[in-house]
């Protein structure tokens, strides 16, 4: 079955480039340039994944995550932003985004992330009808030091595991900041 992808991106050139890239990979792609248009598209049809820009003319992508998940609670949302901000990445994942990538977009890495999320969605749909347990929104966010890609990966892993009941083992040398 052809995967259906919704791209919500206000940069027309980037949106078209991403659409062509994924169409070449046999995706059925719909592109919306505004948050409201993206919501309308999702209400009209079923999609397997959403690529969501953070800065949209009519709102922030991170604020659109909740309304998108109200329509389809199992929908993987992959956030995209030009701002390299760990707190934004963590907040987006805590709100329900499945992953977070920075611009400029590297299509090979984006493709791998999209394929991984689609595999996870397929596995989830085969094993359970309920979404993973949510994290408590009452917890105070913790600031992490570091802005590298490695720290972004750590932050995303923390946010994803916080939504589950999984036990996590953190290892490292004394004094490396495991707390």
UniProtKB/TrEMBL annotation:
Domain Response regulatory: 4-118
Stretches the record annotates as Disordered: 122-146
InterPro entries: CheY-like_superfamily, P-loop_NTPase, Sig_transdc_resp-reg_receiver, Sigma_54_int
Gene Ontology MF annotations: ATP binding; DNA binding
One of the protein's GO biological processes: phosphorelay signal transduction system
PROSITE patterns on file: RESPONSE_REGULATORY (PS50110)
Keywords tagged on the record: ATP-binding, DNA-binding, Nucleotide-binding, Phosphoprotein
SMART domains reported in the protein's UniProt record: REC (SM00448)
UniProt KW DNA-binding keyword: yes
One matching Pfam family: Response_reg
CDD domains to which the protein is assigned, alphabetical: REC (cd00156)
Record-listed 4-aspartylphosphate modification sites: 53
Domain of life of the source: Bacteria
Name of the protein in question: Sigma-54-dependent Fis family transcriptional regulator
Lineage of the organism: Bacteria, Pseudomonadati, Pseudomonadota, Gammaproteobacteria, Chromatiales
């Amino acid at each position: 079955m052809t995967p259906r992808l919704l791209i919500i991106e206000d940069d027309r050139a980037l949106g078209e480039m991403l659409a062509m890239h994924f169409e070449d990979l046999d995706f059925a792609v719909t592109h919306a340039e505004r948050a409201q248009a993206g919501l309308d598209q999702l209400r009209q049809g079923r999609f397997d994944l959403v690529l969501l820009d953070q800065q949209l003319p009519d709102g922030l992508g991170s604020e659109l995550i909740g309304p998108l998940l109200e329509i389809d609670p199992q929908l993987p949302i992959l956030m995209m932003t030009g701002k390299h901000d760990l707190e934004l990445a963590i907040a987006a994942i805590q709100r329900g985004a499945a992953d977070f990538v920075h611009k400029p977009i590297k299509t090979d890495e984006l493709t791998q992330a999209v394929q991984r999320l689609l595999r996870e969605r397929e596995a989830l749909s085969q094993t359970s009808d309920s979404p993973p347990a949510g994290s408590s929104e009452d917890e105070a966010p913790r600031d992490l030091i570091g802005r590298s890609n490695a720290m972004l990966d750590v932050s995303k892993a923390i946010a994803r595991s916080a939504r589950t009941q999984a036990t996590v083992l953190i290892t490292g040398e004394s004094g490396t900041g495991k707390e």
